[in-house]
Design brief:
The chain is built from eleven helices and 13 strands. It is an alpha/beta fold and 315 residues long. It folds into two domains: 123 residues, NAD(P)-binding Rossmann-like Domain (Rossmann fold), CATH 3.40.50.720; 175 residues, Dihydrodipicolinate Reductase, domain 2.
């Protein structure tokens, strides 16, 4: 039987990415409301309650409203906003993050898609916290660079409209200078940290792709781990996971640079451990596409798992 999928918010950046990935699927029936009905609550309620699975690509308040409109207990939901990422009763949609992540998503009726920055950060941080190499109360710092599509329609227009000051002047821009980025709550909670990580994101003049980095003073960690210890934990955590790869230490040591667009237009993520053993320092880096594994690709992966389909179908 073909599953009926309704995308609420299908005209936004993430919604369009998801539609593109689902367009050629013969095992799904994908629907979205016409433009004139997108803000009609009665039409939305009918579409939401008629679907087998709903994907919400909306601002937080609109996502909460959409969930409130669902009264059919058989309807399952994937939400791509920040509204439910640390909410009670919602499963966090990062299947590789915990050993039981896949099973929890498969049985859940409500799944919160992770943020793109959180995906890269958690992929690196969570296994190390879980293994005790990074204590839960350690002062963790994370920074990186993302393509401007990560900021949605408004940021895309800033970078692409000829009459915008950003179009002319900006190559790379630091933001969230008040240290209150919307992904921080899920980064702290899902990593198992006692304190919010100090997060220093930047956006640059390229459309898609990102690097997320955690620098570590290894000598400051109680266990004084070496690069091979960090690598072993990460490699074990993602062994057999089709969409997450951990680069070998030899590969990382041979690299002179790392392109933020390395995995643009991909649904995969690749993790690297760079280190200076003499200095007792390491740079852990996740490369991914902010619209792929960081958004649309993650939603499709979660959809596949929830419907009992091959995890990488359409990816």
């Amino acid at each position: 039987m073909t599953a009926k999928i309704f995308i609420d918010g299908a005209v936004g950046t993430t919604g369009l990415e998801i539609r593109e990935r689902l367009a050629a699927r013969g095992d799904l029936s994908v629907t979205a409301l016409p433009e004139e009905e997108r803000k009609d609550d009665a039409a939305r309620a009918r579409a939401l309650n008629a679907a087998d699975l709903v994907i919400l690509c909306l601002p937080d308040a609109a996502s909460r409203q959409a969930v409130a409109l669902i009264d059919n207990p058989k309807v399952r939901v994937i939400d791509a906003s920040t509204a439910f990422r640390v909410a009670e009763g919602w499963t966090y949609g990062f299947p590789e993050l915990e050993a039981d992540g896949h099973a929890k998503i498969a049985s859940s009726a409500r799944v919160a898609n992770p943020g793109c920055w959180a995906t890269g950060f958690l992929a690196l941080a969570r296994p190390l916290v879980r293994a005790g190499l990074v204590p839960a109360d350690f002062p963790v710092t994370v920074h990186g660079v993302s393509g401007y599509s990560g900021g949605g329609r408004s940021m895309i227009e800033e970078f692409e409209k000829p009459d915008s000051p950003v179009f002319v002047e900006t190559v790379q821009r630091a933001y969230a200078l008040g240290l209150g980025h919307k992904h921080i709550p899920e980064m702290q909670a899902r990593a198992g940290l006692a304190h919010p990580p100090l997060f220093a994101p930047t956006v640059a003049r390229f459309y898609r792709g990102m690097l997320v980095e955690i620098p570590l003073q290894l000598w400051a960690l109680p266990a004084k781990p070496r690069a091979r210890d960090l690598h072993a934990v990460l490699a074990d955590a993602y062994a057999g996971r089709p969409l997450v790869e951990v680069a070998g230490l030899d590969e990382a040591a041979s690299m002179k640079g790392l392109d933020a667009e390395l995995l643009a237009n991909s649904n995969r993520m690749k993790l690297f451990v760079f280190a200076n053993e003499a200095a007792g320092q390491a740079r852990l880096v996740a490369a991914l596409d902010n619209l792929g594994k960081g958004a649309g690709g993650a939603a499709v992966q979660n959809l596949n798992i929830m419907l009992g389909l091959p995890e990488t179908a359409g990816l």
